[in-house]
## 1
Amino acid sequence: MFTLQINDNFSFTTVLVFGTLGMLIMAITIISVLVFHQRKVIRFNKQIQKLEEEKQQMLLKASIRSQEDERQRIAADLHDDAGPLLATARLYLNENLIHQEPAVQLQSIFSAKQIIDDSIQLIRNISHSLLPPTLKNFGLEAAMKDLFEKINGSGVINASARFHDNRERLNDEQELLVFRIVQELMTNIIKHSNGGFIHLTQNVQANNVYFRIHHDGKGILQKQFETLEHDSHGLGLKNIQSRVKVLKGKIFFEIDSSETYYKVTLEIPRESTS
Amino acid sequence: MKTLLYTGLLAPILPILFFLIFKRKSKERAVWVIFFYATYCALHEVINLYLQQIDSKYVLVLFSLFTIIEFSFICNYFILLYKNQPKKKNVITVIWILFTFYAIISFFRSNKLGSWDSFAIGIESLILIIFSCYHLFTKLRHTDNLSLYSNFHFWTVITFLLYFSGTFFMNIMAETMRRNPDYQVLYYIINSGFAILKYVLLAVAMTMKVKKPKDQLSDLDDNLFLKNSL
């Protein structure tokens, strides 16, 4: 039978006391490790939570700033363009017009009509910049192609878009957000990359929709994106990130293996169409 | 010495009392198992005291029985703790059956010889120390933001870990040393000391919230996340 045998010359008290103490110390050590580890994890989680809150705050601020910028741009467009146009039209149609010669009257009415037409066009342009009618009426594919054709038409850069599988469309809200993200990416590429071409492809894999933009200019990589996104000046990138977050998607900034093209991939999980 | 002995005898009342105050309406079976275990311990202490006073030869029978029943209670507690994890539950069940089978055989053998079954108690202690350590290790892997100290299971498991670690050497030396008067003194000190600690900690556990095992992350979760990640 297995029992602890004690030699005559070796005190059993020592074995018992030290053995018990040893076991007790082992047990206390295990419990202490667990307790300290849990405290460490809680501290770490709190830090992560704090960082997440700060990030949210930053995105919120960026979103508010972007809204304010948009409002200021609309206000400036209305004040600087529509305002003077309508004021000029009013000048043509002043009270003295009835005392003028019929030929002068006709000329004034014609000029006023021209100015009013210009104003209508201007207001239409402002409205279209807020919500592209092609997107609203014909969906994302048409809107993207329209956007790329307009860029291509400028002659500065060769732009093309191709949708491989758009049988199941994203819902309206998702399409608008994707359009805004692509718009922002295109603005950045045109402004900063000095590239010669941009190509957008759309694809579907499992329950995700992928949009990938290739360009041959100077681009950024994921690490730079994450740095710039936290930078106080990277408002556009912050907007992209906040929109990606709303879409519950992911965005990847990469370079291809031959280091010739930069690519930006947007991964959007599909939601039911509204 | 007598004070320690009597405190040790009265200590099982603490968790029973705390159960009746805080947990009598609890639907958690694990809590009830601990309550019945504490009740059984109290009963055992009373019978043990009586048998020792009349100098009965059945004291050793009582201790052998206590080992089997105590092990069964604690194994059942761990089975309930892992009720949503069949693998762990089955392993504990098999160990429980094997040990009980061994302890019963050992019980008849040792009582024929009139000896103390140190081996069975030693194995029991080792198994329960391993179970407790394993449970704490899984806690270490899946630590959440909830404080450990406010959890019934944490207090119960550390009770078993401390109690069986503390009494391990005393129990495995019992067979060879039990007739030695010095050992008997140490036995009462260590046994009563750890018994008091056990019942105090179980009483503390009774005041804590029971976090249901289903709220705990299973071991499969890591694989699940890995599979779904890009």
## 2
Amino acid sequence: MRVTDLVVAASIVALALLLSYAMFLGGIGPVPVRSELRTLALNYILLTYNPAKIVYSALAPEGVTAIVWDYRGLDTYFETAVMFLAIISVVALTHGCKVKVGLGKGGMSLIVKTTTRILMPLIVLAGISITMHGWLTPGGGFQGGATIAVATVLALVTYSIDTLAKHGIRKRVLLAMRSTGLIGIALTAVALLIVGLVVGANAYIFQNQERVGSPLAFPAYFSGTPTGGSLLFYNLFEAFAVSAGLSLAIIVTSLREEEVKETLRGEGVE
Amino acid sequence: MNELIPYLLTVVFVSFVINLVIALYGIFARPTLVKKIIALTIFSDSLNSLAIFVGYRVVSRGVPAPPVVVNYTNPQGPAQLARVAVDPLPQALVLTAIVIGLAVTLFMVKVTMQVHRVYGTTSVRKLEHIEHGNKEVKEEGVVE
């Protein structure tokens, strides 16, 4: 056993040294001690809000959201699909479990409950604010949705799972919300294609502003403020889907022993 | 001062790598599934931080700025930003990776909970000695 430990320790140290040496020599590109941007990053920054070169631009001042939902929109779409696959797997593991009312003692003390009641709307508001400024300041649908899901976690811990169920935050509702968000994203991705079919013009999937060979575009300004075109809709639906999906996964994960064991026995685990 | 910044950045860089390797040790060597999950989250967080770090840059004048065009009404705004902005691409990749990582971690936690409910243990060394169809862990049959 001692020899094994020694071998493990030595191999770990060797791996650390090798990895850091390889990375320092340029294994993952230039080390960040540099004063110039990479050409790709320079292009993204120069083109993310550029009305003069509208064919290459997303017309959104925030570079990260422009990359996430415009330049690399298809990547993000499938990353979202991976995320919802994980959430659906969590839900499928507890298929048939029902929340039982009156199992626990009904949550924490009155002080914690009152504080949570004051805090929860503020958290949701902050999440909405992060979402709705996603194309102007750092933020967006993912971050806003994750922030809104924090409110659910807080309520889950402070109150109890059956209080949430009593107030309508149930599995079916959250699943419907999550699916609505995902359908919204898919519809936004093909919206200009549908418009192009009706009008008779060329269009692309995940098109935001007008591109080479396609004059169609989402409205880029709302009363003088840039909206980022399709980025507004993507952020909105993504926040919807992420907040509902993460809340759903957390609620299902915190199902109590009595609720899950019955299903495990009923489905014949042995 | 000019030598100090690269030195400190190198220290941060190497510490990320050491963090990664320790997390790998946790994933491979610890027997409990819970500790494997914890090590995996440490691994992914270190890797995300490393990706952000690769996008960092030292600017010659001023401080590095996030890739947001603040004065977008000015036609020179993006060009001004390009002098101080950091690389937006690693941030965009890490952003989705974090949210996906949260969902996948929840899935792993859920599976581990079910394993514990069915077999009464989360140690992979004990789990491999459980015969098929035998739910109880035999105390004397366990080889640690």
## 3
Amino acid sequence: MSNWDFINNYGDLRNWGKLDSADIKIEGAGTQCGDVINLYIKLENGIIKDAKFDGDACILSTISADIFLSKIIGMNIKDAVKISENSYLEEFPINVSPGRIGCVLLPLRTLKRSEYGKYC
Amino acid sequence: MDINSIRKDFPILNRNFIYLDSAATSQKPRQVIDAIRNYYENYNANVHRSIYSLASEATEIYESSRKNIADFIGARDNEIIFTRNTTEALNLLSYSLQSKLEKGDEVLLSRMEHHSNLLPWLRLESYGIKVKFIELDSEGNMDEEDFKSKLTKNVKIVSITHVSNVLGTINNIEFFGKMAKENGSLFVVDGAQSIPHLPFKINDYIDFLAFSGHKMLGPMGIGVLYGKYSLLEGLPPFMQGGEMVKSVSLERVIYEDPPVKFEAGTPNVEGAVGLSAAVDYLKKIGMDNIRKHEYELGKRALELAESNKLIEYYGPRDSRKRSGLISFNLKSKKYDRIVKDLQSKSIIAGKLIHSHDVAEFLGDKSVFARSGYHCAEPLFKYLGINGSVRFSWYLYNTIQEIEKAFESLGEINV
């Protein structure tokens, strides 16, 4: 599938929105582009029970945030922050150019910057 | 102008893509590539110093390249300093002119400057020099009244771009230059986006002019700073080292005359040779013809942008005031739905599709366009937008390519 087809055909976002009762609220910003993504994560005994995101970012960051949150819901937060950048990029459905790796990694990097980042 | 025969001169165009990023760098014709090869295969030696015949030939080729480039802009050869690019040319100028400035002096720039014509001047602020900016009107032209009001006696340098690399605006440098002269200010022109595209001759009101070779069919790593000889004579060198001295003792250094005084170290001879071949190529086609061709492409691009309700473009509405590029953003087709229900699970969080996403889509369709801030971040903050997509064309692009690029935009369904 081309990147064009993947983005054009990505359906509605599953995890878009806010979580007022979130235990982790953290804002991530792209270094070059001015993009902003907010992550909201609800924990129960260290397990991610629910997660949402919103913000103003490019499609790639937005889709990546959606995919990333779907992946980590149900995981222990300490394991979620340990996901490596390389393994996340490998799992990501499309290959992106070097200039856009930062877009795809924005949600993961944002989570790693949270207080749980110390468990990385 | 026979576009098909021109395209045959550019080997890279055999690859199947539409290249619309010539404002970043142009493609190179076979004539330039061959000139560089010919230099290395037949003439390579270090210039200016050695006595043997090959070195003399290399020096002759280097200096005749300088002469050819000088002729191209109507200057004298001893007024052409070779640099790496426009950025280095403007840094050279900022460092060398610093010795002529005093605390409280002012430098006047505009809101549309590329970082190359911004950061070298902003660095002077730490020495007590004030940097001021000419405001823009709603179409992205420099506000002449604002310029007049800011052109005070303290303004020692006015440095502006001839053509905006974001807005495409062709600025009336004659107006700004003559006013600057009347005020006793030095007038500096960033010609990176104009020298490759517009017929141009140096005028008396221009004290310094910077441009890059790689944007005008030449190789990367060669650029030019033009300076009036009388001014260059009075400026200290920017860098010190080999080549740029007449005599050195531990007590005393006598510098070479301009331009060599400003070219420390072994120069980029292949670059000068390549740029000279590029100038020959541009002269053969004719700068008037190139401008006319780019204008036609620009007119078509503007028509297509105007007719697409999802496109928001920037810069003058009149093609005659624009050079060969258009910057724009694409509005999301799903935007209506988003404003109806901000909490809806929609794919786009903002009104405009991010320019990197648009460039990604276009790249998939082999349409190569630039996205982001185009090294003019303060301009985007001033305009209140987060980057743009930019199509920029040159003598080798066709109307069909412009039409195909806009057609591809229509296939984005987000």
## 4
Amino acid sequence: MTEKIEKIIVNSLIELNEELEGNPLGSPTKETKLYGGGGALDSLALVSFITDLEERISDEFDEDIVLADEKAMSQRTSPFRNVKSLTIYIQKLLEE
Amino acid sequence: MKKVILITGTRKGIGKELAEYYLSLGCVVIGCSRGPGTIVNSDYRHHELDVSNEKNVVKMVRATKKEFSRIDILLNNAGIASMNHFLTTSYNTVQNIFNTNFLGTFIFSREVSKVMMKQKYGRIVNYTTVASALRLEGEAVYAASKGAIENFTQTISKEVAPYNITVNAIGPTPVETDLIKTVPKDKIAALLDKQAIKRFGTFEDIKNVIDFFIDDKSEFITGQIIYLGGIHN
């Protein structure tokens, strides 16, 4: 399941990267920083990304999760810091 | 292309009238209420849910997106009122009012905005009340829940503006619907007397403001609250 989620995130990032100016995400991997602390996404790009991701997760797992978290905008503890933290967060939501 | 309009609280009252009106104009209408639907039309879909139930709202919005690929307009119409002195208002009543009025508006706005963001177009209309502007005695909790909606409307209008989504609110005066049927007649008369134009609001009055907010030409109108009857803050 972890690998599947990671793949969905990376694919979504590849698509997002094409829409953003200057290829800010390079070739996304699980270490790619996303938001805050040197992450490449600003808050507008982050909400677009989250929206796209929710839809992909729903299509793949037939599970309607909401990626909203009180720590979303935190620099240190946000689940949206990098691909790895986001994978763990989504897996937790799917297992709830 | 048919416009897709999501309206909450379509089983009766203004919500039902609006749903039927937009269906008559050839729109697709997605409605919801706690009970079964009362509109039969091939362009109408009904979802039975509580607007403050996050899971069910998410499900409804995603099902709509799947079937119609877009949502052009959201009317956060569902609402409940309560008239009471705040000293005799129960904790549960406050929770129910805030759940339906504010949380319902919040969840629908958030989920539908996600769809609108992608299509780079959207019109959201929230509902407040003249009781909020008037600080009307006996309506402290109801007006507070609507006051929250007013502030929310104006703030999120800034957050979604980059996606060509507008968010506005209408503040109706009393309209003769179920919402006010338990309010004493003299209270209603006193309220009407505070208006510049002293009469009940009508469905036509509400429709007129909503039509203005959702018009394609209103793309520069956002974060606005229009009260009916000549009431102002």
